[in-house]
Amino acid sequence: MTIKDTPEEWEVRATDTPFVGNKTSVRTDDVVMPDGTVVGRDYQVHPGSVAVLALDEADRVLVLRQYRHPVRHKLWEIPAGLLDVPGENPLHAAQRELYEEAHVKAEDWRVLTDVYTTPGGCDEAVRIFLARDLSEAEGERFAVEEEEADMELDRVPVGDLVRGVLAGELHNNCLVVGVLSLVAARAGSGLDALRPAQAPWPARPFEA
């Protein structure tokens, strides 16, 4: 048996959107279960996101520390952001986020992994990229605001991040998945065997 997620869509008898926010909304679907019963399912509708594990020549990961109000924490994270435009090329979005949040550019891009962050209650899909061959971006720095105005930047060795994840000290989904995927890729076929940056992404189709 092949261990692989497969697309499937159960019948929806009715749907409603009781809340619409600036970036996301909440939807209620009446879904037909295998035994024929109909059950309501509430979930957040999300445009999708990209994240960047930027790895420098000293084997350090570019991280940032940002306040996240829903969990009342300042979390160490990797650069990330929303897919603001339907059908937006995720690589272009990732390059934009790396520039805006860290004023850094990268020459080598690969797909590290694709994840659904909370599939039981949200349809958010995230593509996490590996970016290497880093350098300072040209031009003016992006003007930050709101939570990002208080953001801290650092570069942390991969081993320190792995220890923090396993010790329960680092909690951001993209950082945890990205760092552990990096370690797994190195232990497997190597980083150069990762998917190309323009690899298809069925969860959020795009034009190259």
From TrEMBL:
Pfam families: NUDIX. It comes from the Bacteria. One of its GO terms (molecular function) is hydrolase activity. Keywords: Hydrolase. Residues 44-178 form the Nudix hydrolase domain. InterPro entries: NUDIX_hydrolase-like_dom_sf, NUDIX_hydrolase_dom. The keyword Hydrolase applies. This is NUDIX hydrolase. It comes from Streptomyces purpurascens.
